[in-house]
C-alpha cells in the first residue's frame, strides 16, 4: 500500500506496531491554521519593532483549551535560543506563566525561572528585579509573553493594581513588546489600569464551527494519523458535526476527539475513523469528565 492519504513520518509509522502508532498519535504536533498563523506573524512584527518609549502590547484572548499556549510554544520553537558570534546566548522570545495571584515578587520570580536563573523566591522584589533587568540586557530579548494572564484576577483590587503597575514599569524599563494571553477575563484584568489598558490591541482566537476552516484543520489532522485507510475527515459532514460538537468548539477539544477516535480505530482494527467511532469516543470523554 502507498498510504497516499498520509504525509511525512506518519507514512512510516503506519507500518509499526499498534502501540508505537498510538504513541505517535499522542505526541504533541503543530498543525497550522489561519488564526494561529496570523498571530505568529503579528508576533514576528513585534519582535522586529524598534525600541521606543511606548512599546506595543497585545491581548491574546480565547476560550480555555483553544490553542493559546500552543501558539506561544510555537513562537518559542520558531525563535530558539542561539549563540551569537561573541559566543553569548541570544534569546529573542521569553514566555512565562503568570503567577496564581497578583504579586510583584512572584512576577519577577516566574520570569527568572523562565530564564533558568537561580534565585531565592523569597528575596526582596528589588533584588529579583535587578536580576531580571540584568539577564534581559545580556540575552537581548525582544518579546515578552505572559501565559494564563487571567490568573492576576485571583487577588484583591489593590493587589491587581500593584501587579499591573510593576508590570508596566518593567516593560517601560526593558522597552520590549508585551503579550498577555488568557481567557477574555484578561481584558477585565487589564482594565484595572486604564492608562496601561490603552496600550493593548486585542487578538482573538475564535471558537470552531462546522465551516471550511474546520474542514481544512481536520484534513491536515488526517495527514498525521497513522491509519491504514483514509477517513475523509475534511469532507464528511457526517464526521464534521459530531467532532465539532464533541470537542465543544475548541481546538483542544477537537484534537482530543480526533486523537481518541484514531486510537480507537487502531485498536478495533477498522483503521479509519467512522461516525460510530467518533460517537463512542465522545461518550467516553464525557464519562471521564463526569467522573473527575
Helices and strands, with pairings:
Blueprint: H1 10-13, H2 18-26, H3 34-47, E1 57-62, H4 68-78, E2 82-83, E3 89-90, E4 93-97, H5 104-114, H6 125-139, E5 143-147, H7 157-174, E6 178-182, H8 185-190, H9 194-197, E7 200-205, H10 212-223, H11 237-246, H12 251-268, H13 275-291
Parallel strand pairs: 1-6, 1-7, 4-5, 5-6
Antiparallel strand pairs: 2-3
Helix pairs in contact: 2-12, 5-6, 11-12, 11-13, 12-13
Q: How would you summarize this macromolecular structure in one to three sentences?
A:
The chain has 292 residues and is α/β, with parallel strands linked by helices.
Describe this structure in words.
The chain has 292 residues and is α/β, with parallel strands linked by helices. It folds into 2 domains: 10-26 and 208-291; 34-192, 3-Layer(aba) Sandwich (Rossmann fold), CATH 3.40.50.300. The protein is 51% helix and 11% strand. The protein is built from 13 helices and 7 strands. It has a 5-stranded parallel beta sheet. The protein has a two-stranded antiparallel sheet with strand order 2-3. Strand 5 (143-147), helix 7 (157-174) and strand 6 (178-182) form a beta-alpha-beta unit. Helix 2 (18-26) runs antiparallel to helix 12 (251-268) and helix 11 (237-246) crosses helix 12. The longest helix has 18 residues, at 157-174. It starts with 9 loop residues before the first helix and ends with a helix. The model has no long low-confidence stretch (mean pLDDT 93).
Amino acid at each position: 500500500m502507498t498510504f497516499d492519504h498520509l504525509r511525512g513520518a506518519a507514512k512510516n509509522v503506519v507500518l509499526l506496531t499498534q502501540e508505537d502508532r498510538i504513541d505517535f498519535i499522542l505526541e504533541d504536533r503543530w498543525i497550522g491554521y489561519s488564526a494561529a498563523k496570523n498571530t505568529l506573524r503579528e508576533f514576528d512584527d513585534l519582535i522586529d519593532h524598534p525600541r521606543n518609549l511606548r512599546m506595543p502590547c497585545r491581548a491574546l484572548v480565547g476560550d480555555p483549551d483553544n490553542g493559546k499556549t500552543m501558539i506561544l510554544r510555537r513562537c518559542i520553537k520558531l525563535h530558539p535560543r542561539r549563540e551569537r558570534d561573541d559566543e553569548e546566548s541570544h534569546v529573542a522570545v521569553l514566555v512565562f506563566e503568570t503567577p496564581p495571584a497578583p504579586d510583584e515578587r512572584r512576577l519577577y520570580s516566574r520570569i527568572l525561572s523562565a530564564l533558568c536563573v537561580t534565585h531565592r523566591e523569597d528575596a526582596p522584589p528589588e533584588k529579583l528585579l535587578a536580576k531580571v533587568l540584568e539577564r534581559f540586557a545580556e540575552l537581548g530579548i525582544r518579546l515578552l509573553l505572559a501565559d494564563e494572564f487571567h490568573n492576576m484576577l485571583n487577588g484583591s483590587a489593590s493587589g491587581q493594581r500593584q501587579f499591573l503597575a510593576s508590570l508596566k514599569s518593567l516593560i517601560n524599563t526593558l522597552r520590549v513588546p508585551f503579550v498577555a494571553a488568557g481567557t477574555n477575563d484578561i481584558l477585565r484584568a487589564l482594565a484595572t489600569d486604564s492608562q496601561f489598558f490603552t496600550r493593548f490591541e486585542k487578538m482573538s482566537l475564535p471558537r470552531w464551527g462546522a465551516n471550511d476552516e474546520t474542514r481544512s484543520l481536520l484534513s491536515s489532522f488526517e495527514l498525521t494519523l497513522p491509519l491504514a485507510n483514509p477517513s475523509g475527515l475534511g469532507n464528511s459532514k457526517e464526521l464534521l458535526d459530531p467532532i465539532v460538537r464533541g470537542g465543544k468548539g475548541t481546538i483542544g477539544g477537537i484534537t482530543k476527539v480526533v486523537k481518541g477516535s484514531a486510537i480507537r480505530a487502531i485498536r478495533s482494527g477498522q483503521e479509519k475513523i467512522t461516525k460510530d467511532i467518533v460517537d463512542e469516543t465522545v461518550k467516553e470523554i464525557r464519562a471521564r469528565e463526569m467522573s473527575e
